[in-house]
Amino acid sequence: MNGAESLIRTLVAGGVEVCFANPGTSEMHLVDAIDRVPGIRPVLGLFEGVCSGAADGYGRMADKPACTLFHLGPGLGNALANLHNARRAASPLLNIVGDHATYHRRFDAPLTSDVEGVARPMSDWMRSVRESGALAADGAAALAAAKGPPGRVASLIIPADCAWGGASGPAPIPAAEPRPAPDDKAVDDAVAVLRAASQGGRHVALFVGAEALRGEALETLGRIAAATGVRTICDTFAARIERGAGRPVVERLPYFPEDAVKLLAGLTDLILVGVKAPVTFFAYPDQPSETAPEACHRHVLVEPGGAVAPALAAIAEALGAGSGAVRRAGLVRPGLPSGKLDPTKVATILAAMLPEDAVVSDEGLTASFGCFSATVNAPSHSWLTITGGAIGQGLPLSVGLAIACPDRPVVCLHGDGGAMYTIQALWTQAREGLGVKTIVFSNRRYSILQMELMRLGAGNPGPKALGMFDLGRPDLDWVSLARGMGVPATRAETAEEMAAQFRAALAEPGPALIEAVV
Amino acid sequence: MNGAESLIRTLVAGGVEVCFANPGTSEMHLVDAIDRVPGIRPVLGLFEGVCSGAADGYGRMADKPACTLFHLGPGLGNALANLHNARRAASPLLNIVGDHATYHRRFDAPLTSDVEGVARPMSDWMRSVRESGALAADGAAALAAAKGPPGRVASLIIPADCAWGGASGPAPIPAAEPRPAPDDKAVDDAVAVLRAASQGGRHVALFVGAEALRGEALETLGRIAAATGVRTICDTFAARIERGAGRPVVERLPYFPEDAVKLLAGLTDLILVGVKAPVTFFAYPDQPSETAPEACHRHVLVEPGGAVAPALAAIAEALGAGSGAVRRAGLVRPGLPSGKLDPTKVATILAAMLPEDAVVSDEGLTASFGCFSATVNAPSHSWLTITGGAIGQGLPLSVGLAIACPDRPVVCLHGDGGAMYTIQALWTQAREGLGVKTIVFSNRRYSILQMELMRLGAGNPGPKALGMFDLGRPDLDWVSLARGMGVPATRAETAEEMAAQFRAALAEPGPALIEAVV
pTM (2 decimals)? Predict the structure, then answer.
C-alpha cells in the first residue's frame, strides 16, 4: 500500500465521504487512491473556489468534514477566499494539498511556491507531511483537527513522493476532543443579568451565534427569552440559522452601521453567546467600530468556538424556563405580487413559495436582506449566509448543501457581482444533478459598493469611479451563462414571470437558474 | 490632499497608466482618488485573477508596471495564482491591497485576515503602510521595486485610514536600480566553451530566457549561434518570445520529460543565460529531476534576473560574431486544411492566417504545443506562455496585452479546462472593446492530466479517476458562455469553418471567441 491509499483509507474510516476535487499531476497518486478505495465520492469543481465553498456548505449541514483536493500553492490560492468564509463559519473542513516531491523542490520548477505560506492565513491547523509512512497518521491528526469542536479548517500538504512511497496501512483516528464545560461564573453572571431584566429596569439582549441558532439550543434560547422577556439577536452573517414556522424567532443585526446602532440603542446589557460583541463590517471615518452603546455592559457567556448548548441549558435550568410561552414564528404565506419585478417582490414570492425544509444559500447582499425578513413566517428552513464577507460563496456553498442534504430543496439567492466570482459552480450542479434553484438578482451593479461610495461622502463620483461598480456595458446574460454550463435557465422581468418560473423550477429535479431582473 | 490622492499622484508621475481593479469598501478612497486624478485608467475585472493576469500581460509587453486594486485578504487570495505566473515571468507589477483601518483590526470583523500572510508567498516585495503621511513614499518605494530590474511583484497593503487620512503630497520616485554588469569570468568561460564548440568535439547549447528572446539581445544570440554553430534553446514556458519570419530561430524545450531528455541528449555543455538548468515540470517516481545529461557541464553565464543583453554582447564581441550568417525564419504560409477539425489543423490555420505583429497568449497546453512549432514561419509576432504553470492565465493575460498594445492583433489560444478558471476575463474584453481573438480548444477534458495519469502508471483507472479529468457530462457550450458576457462567438467543427470564422473574427474590431471542437 502506498501513502496515498493509507491516507484515503484512514479518512474513509474516519467518516469522510466526499472529496471536492480539482487535482493536478502532483496529486495523481491521491486520485488513484480515491479511485480504488470504496466509500469516498469525488466531486469535480472547475475552479478551486468552487471546491472550498462546497466543502464549507457540506460541513455546515453535515456537521462533519468533507475533504478537498488541491494542486500546489496556486491551486490552494484559488481556494482561499472561501476557506476564509469557512473559518468564519467554524466549518469542519479538511484540505489535501499536493506539493512537489521533497527532492524536487530544490530545483525550483515553475510551479514551485511556498505552499505552507499560502495555507497558513486561512488554516486553523496545518502540517506538511515528511515521509510516506507518516501520511496516514498525519491525515488522522488533520481529520481530528477539522472535526473540532469547533469545526476547523485543517490543511495537510502532501509532497508527491509521500503519496507514492510505501506505507504500512491506515491510522486510527484520535478520539474527539471534549468540548469545554460552561464557565460557572459566566453562567451565574448571565443568570443575574437576565433575572434583573425580567424584573424591569435593564434592557438586555442575548447576542448569539453558532449552535444557538439551531436544534435544541435554539429551543433553549427561545425558552430563556420567553421567561425573561429579553431580546435575542444574531450577527448579520451567521453560519446557519434554523428558522421559519414553528421556530423561536431571533432578530438579525442589520448590515449598515447606522441600522445596527439603532437596533442596539438603549441596551444596558449584551450577553455574548459564542460570538464577539457586534462591530461594523468595515471602518468608516469618524465612526466607532462597535455598534452597541458604549455604556452597554458586555457579558461573555461563551467565547466563540465554546460550548454554547450546555451554557444555555444551564441558564434555562437556573431560571426554570419552560417551553410554554416560547415565541414561535407562525406559518403565513403572502399573496403573490404582480407587475415589474423588484427585490421586494422577489422576497414576497420567496415567502409565498419557499418549500418546507428548504436550505437557503444567501449571498444576495443588498438584494436579499429583504428576503430574510420576508421569510420569517415561511415553512421551517435553514438559512446560511456569507460568514466571512468574501464574495463568491453562494453558488459553491449550494453545491455542498445539496450533496450534504440530498432530500432537501436547496435555494441559492445571489447578487450578480458575487455570482460571477465562482460561476463555475453551475457546471458542478449540472454534472451532479443537484436540485439547486438559483435566483440571481440581476441589478447589473455592485449595489452595496455604490451605496458605500455615497456613504463615504465621496461627493459627486465621476465615470471612472462609477464604472468600477457598474456591471453593465455589456449586461451579463445569465440565461446564456447558465445554459453554457448545462443548467436550465430563464429570465424574469415581472413578478408573474418570476413566480411561474420559480414554481416550474421547484417542480423539476436538477438545477435551475432564474435571472431576476431587478 | 488625503493619503489615497498622494499615492495615485505619485504613481501617475512614476508612469503608471492603468489600474486593473476589483475594489471594495475598504478601497473606496483609492477609487475616489483614481476618479479624480487624471492619467490613470481603471479597468474593472469581475474576479481578481482577471486583474492580476491582465497586469502580468501588461507588464510583459509594456515593460513597465500597471497597478492592481484588491480588497483585503480574500480579494488578494483570488489574485494569487496569476501573481505566481507574473513572478515567474519577472513581470513588473504593483499590487495595491486595501485592509481594514488600523484601529478596526483588533475587533476582528468578518473580513479580517492576515493580509501580509496572503501577500507574502507571491510577492517579491511587500510593505504595510503605517500612516497616511507615509503612503506616497511607500507607494514610490513599491513602484521602484516593481520596476526592477528585473521586474518584480510588489504588494503595498493600505489600511483604510491611511488612505483617507491627510498627506502632504506626492513623493518622488527613487532612481531606477542599476543592472549588475556581466561577470567577466563567466563571459570568458562561455567564450572558451563556444570556441571549443566551433572547433568541433563539444556539443554546446545556450539555454536562454528573459530578454535573450527578444529585441537586440535575440539578434546577438542569433549571431553567436551562427558564428559557433551551437544550438539555442529556450525553456518550455518563457515569458515572451519574439519569433516568426525574419527572427533568429530558437528551439523550445518540450514539456514532457522524455522529450526534453531526448532534445538535450548528447550535449556536453549547457550555457545558462538568465535561466536555471532545465528540470522536469513535475517529479515522477524513479526519474531524475534534471533533463540535461548528468555529464553535461552547466555554465552559468547570467543568473535569472541578471543582465542578459550585455553578457551576450560581450560574448559576440569576443567572438567577432557578425550578423551575416544568422539563421532566420523565412515567411511560409501553409495551405488551409479541410475536414474534421483537430489540433494539428487548428495549428495549420493559425500558421496560415496569423496576422503580422500579432501578440499570442498561449495557454493551449497539449492542444497548442503544435501551434508553436507550426508558426515558426508565420509573420513576425510575440508569443507569451504560462510561465508559472498556474492555469487560468491565458484569458486575463490577453486583456493586459490588448491594453498594452492597442495597435497589435491579440490572439489567445486556450485549453477549455484552464479557460474556465478565469472566464470572467471575457466580460472585460467586451467592456473595453479589446480586439482579442480567442480560440478555445474544446476537447472536453483536462487532456494533460489524462496523459499524466497514464504516465504515472496508474493502471486501469476507474470512473472516479477518469471523472476528475473529464469536462463532459455536461459539455461546456463556449458559444453561450462567451455571448453571456457580450463576446461574439462561434463554434467550428471542421477546418473550413475554423478558417472562415477566424478570418471573420480578424476582420472585425473587438473581441471574438471560436470554440474549436477538437
Answer: 0.98
